[in-house]
Amino acid sequence: EVQLVESGGGLVQPGRSLKLSCAASGFTFSNYYMAWVRQAPTKGLEWVASITNSGGSTYYRDSVKGRFTISRDNAKSTLYLQMDSLRSEDTATYYCTRDLVALDYWGQGVMVTVSS
Amino acid sequence: DVVMTQTPVSMSVSLGGQVSISCRSSQSLVHNNGNTYLSWYIQKPSQSPQLLIYKVSNRFSGISDRFSGSGSGTDFTLKISRVEPDDLGVYYCGQGTQYPFTFGSGTKLEIK
């Protein structure tokens, strides 16, 4: 059974950093692209970043470029999202997703609140 | 960026009825490799989104044949037949043809 379990969320002040993790199991992690998608409270879905299966290429939405870094450790079957210079508009639930022709499996999500 | 326009914003349907949700993209979703990466997702109340349909018309594993997707180019439709109580939630279309991936704003399905 495919499982994606996010952790690392919480309340953080504007300008500070936070690192999210996503532990994957039930599939060969190193064979799949992965992505982060977020959802602000009462809003729709917003893709944040993607990474190829090897980690050799990464892609970001413009609003997080230069502030967020997606990475992975295939030996640990874990996906990461390093978030720096956080802003109030980054407040959202962040979902880890597997990317295979579509975002086929999603984690339960982790809440990130950016507020002073 | 590809803009995904979904209609209607919300709809109410009787149990056993049928609904159609429209999704239009601001540019063609046909990838250079010939595939069209248009997907449909449902987010049930207090749950994570789940994949229903991928590449326009392919049902994901375990998805009922009451769900069907169709369309091409820039115009796509999700149909749900014989609506059941468990179908309530917000439906999103999404494109994975080009970065940044984008989603429609969602269609909320309510059961009468």
Write the layout of secondary structure elements.
The complex is a heterodimer of chains A (116) and B (112).
Chain A: E1 3-7, E2 10-12, E3 18-25, E4 33-39, E5 45-51, E6 58-60, E7 68-73, E8 78-83, E9 92-100, E10 102-106, E11 110-114
Parallel strand pairs in A: 2-11
Antiparallel strand pairs in A: 1-3, 3-8, 4-5, 4-9, 5-6, 7-8, 9-10, 9-11
Chain B: E1 4-7, E2 10-13, E3 19-25, E4 38-43, E5 50-54, E6 58-59, E7 67-72, E8 75-80, E9 89-95, E10 102-103, E11 107-111
Parallel strand pairs in B: 2-11
Antiparallel strand pairs in B: 1-3, 3-8, 4-5, 4-9, 5-6, 7-8, 9-10, 9-11
Q: What does this protein look like?
A:
The complex is a heterodimer of chains A (116) and B (112). By secondary structure, chain A is mostly beta strands. Chain A contains no helices and eleven strands. Chain A has strands at 3-7, 10-12, 18-25, 33-39, 45-51, 58-60, 68-73, 78-83, 92-100, 102-106, 110-114. In chain A, strands 2, 4, 5, 6, 9, 10 and 11 form a seven-stranded mixed β-sheet that branches. Chain A is globular, with a radius of gyration of 13 Å. Chain B is mostly beta strands and 112 residues long. Helix content of chain B is 0%, strand content 48%. Chain B has strands at residues 4-7, 10-13, 19-25, 38-43, 50-54, 58-59, 67-72, 75-80, 89-95, 102-103, 107-111. Chain B is globular, with a radius of gyration of 13 Å. The A-B interface holds A 35, 37, 44-47, 50, 59-62, 95, 99, 101-109 and B 35, 37, 39, 41, 43, 48-51, 54-55, 60, 92, 94, 96, 99-106.
